[in-house]
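Researcher: Please predict.
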Amino acid sequence: MDNEMLTHRGGMILNYIVRQYIANAVPVASQSVANEANLGVSPATIRNEMAQLEKDGYLIRPHTSAGCIPADKGYRHYVESLESIALPREEQYLISHTFHQVEREVEAWVNLTASMLARLTRNVAVVSLPKSTDCKLKHLELIAVQDKRVLMVAVLEGAVVRQELITFDEAVTQSDLTKISDKLNGIYAGKSRNQISKSKEGLTDMEKKVNENLLEIMKTEDSKEYQEPKLEGWHFMLEKPEFAHSDKMHDLMELVEQRGLLKVILPSRLSEPGVQVIIGKENQNSAIQNCSVVICRYGLPQEASGTIAVVGPTRMPYMLTIPTVYYLSSVLGQLVGGLYDQEIQEAQPE
């Protein structure tokens, strides 16, 4: 590991420079380190250490006469050196309390998460709705509308509700519809589309019609790769010195317009538990190689899961962002688990 190549003093100097640059967005000079870092060594020693850090790729000197700023490698060392970081208890309480004030609906949870995450981290928040791996029917209801027309309401596990109008060949009463829905609920509740498609034996023509429409609804849900995520906090990104007067935002905004941001920020190994941090050129897509991504899955891997992430400059407050993403992913995970009557074991931040 690169971290093992650094001396203890070199690591302390590097982490000090990273913290200062994150806070102030100004290159850090050796004299500043000597005066303020309290390392107990001479300015000459600090200059030599910084020169070595620059040579080893941890620091960059934008101009010959300027101080240094962290390279991606320097940020990576800093992130991996963070230990036992967690949101303060009062922040955790505030977040939990706020979630209890909103309606028990997945979209409301996702919208609240994106809003809180952007406000707390002062960067762009990306939160997707939980996507079922293979949707299952929870409840079916048939409502008489007019003569032969019937409204089918299908409630899928994960609080997904879909409606469709069905036209029968003959008029049907609400009493008959209730009997049909009771029968089909008894057969289909808790089953997937594949299981329901194999359970047609003994159905009447009307029941077969309901079956066909239900399977079509479930097929549509299963075929959805993902829904466009909720995005909040672009104004925070535009305020950053890195993006305020440059064209670095152009490619990012183009991704958003093409509805491709979530695909681009998803790392190939996100199925692994915990919070993951992708820094600068560690991102495979060039459009976000000026950014860092702090990202985590939430939900039930075998039932329904979504993604929560923060996108910002590499000069990101990692010490705040990582535990915030972790805690909000845990809260969302617990809420989604409740929809499936399951308790979720909390993921640990990496």
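Model: Residues 2-81 form a domain with the Arc Repressor Mutant, subunit A fold (CATH 1.10.10.10).
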